Amino acid sequence: MTKSGARILVVDDEIEILRALQRSLVAHGFEVCTADNGEDALEEIGRYRPDLMLLDLGLPGISGLEVCRQVRLSSNLPIIVLSVKDTERDKVSALDLGADDYVSKPFGMNEVLARVRVALRHSAHVHAGVEPSFTAGPLKVDFAQRQVQVNGQEVKLTPTEYDLLKALIKNSGKIMTRQMLLSQVWGTGYGTEAHYLHVYIGQLRRKIEPDPAHPRFILTISGVGYRFSPDEESS
To answer: In what side-by-side order are the strands of the sheet with 79-84?
Structure first.
C-alpha cells in the first residue's frame, strides 16, 4: 500500500470491483482501504480517516444511503456513489443526502479516477475557504462586489441569477440536484418547483456561456440536476 497520495476508502460488496478499484487507485499513487458492507465502512471511516470514499449503494446490512446519511451527520468527507444505471431514484437520494458525485456501473477506470481528482480538488478548496473571486476561462466572478464578467465585459445578472451562479460555483465539480439548488437559492419551500430552476438555468447560460447550446460551465446531469465545471469538458 502506497502512502504518497490521498487516502481512499472503497466500499462495495463485489470483490472483483473492490480489487479492480484498489489496484488502479494504488497504481495512481493513492492509499486504499476497503470494506464490503456498511457497518465496516462506518468503522473504517473512524479508524482510517480517509480523504474520500467510493460508496456502492447496494450493500448488505446498512445500505449505502444510510452510510451516506450517517457520515453527513458529522463529516464533510467527499463521497462518490457507485450505482447501477437503473437506480436513478437512489442516485438522487444519495446526492440529496450529501454525496458529491456518482459513477454508474459498469464504469471505466479513467472516469472513476477523473471524478476522484475533481472531488479531492473541491474538498481542498472548501477547506481553504471561499476565495473573494473566481476565474475560469472567460468567466470571472467577484463575490465581494457581486460582479460577473465574461471576456472582460460586465454581465448584468438579476439577484436570483447571481445567487444561482454562486451556489453552483461554490460547489464546482459537485452534482447539485434540483431540490438542493431550489432550496439553496429560493428557500426550503420551493423544493418541488423545478420549472423555476429550468428557466433560470437557461437565462444564466445565455449570459455567461460562450455557446449556450453547448454549455461549458453549467452541465446538465440527466434526470438528476446540474454540475458547474470550471474546466473544459463535454457534457
So the answer is: 31-35, 7-11, 52-56, 79-84, 101-105
Torsion sign, CA atoms 184, 187, 190, 192: positive
CA–centroid distance for 3 within its chain: 25
Q: Looking at the domain 133-228, which fold is it?
A: Arc Repressor Mutant, subunit A (1.10.10)
* Three-class SS state of 90: helix
Q: What was the pLDDT predicted at 119?
A: 86
Q: Which strands make up the sheet holding 133-136, listed edge to edge?
A: 133-136, 139-142, 147-150, 153-155
Which residues in the chain come in under a pLDDT of 50?
1-4, 128, 234-235
Looking only at the bridges linking them, the beta strands covering 139-142 and 133-136 are antiparallel
Q: What is the DSSP letter of 10?
A: E
Which fold would CATH assign to domain 7-128? Rossmann fold (3.40.50)
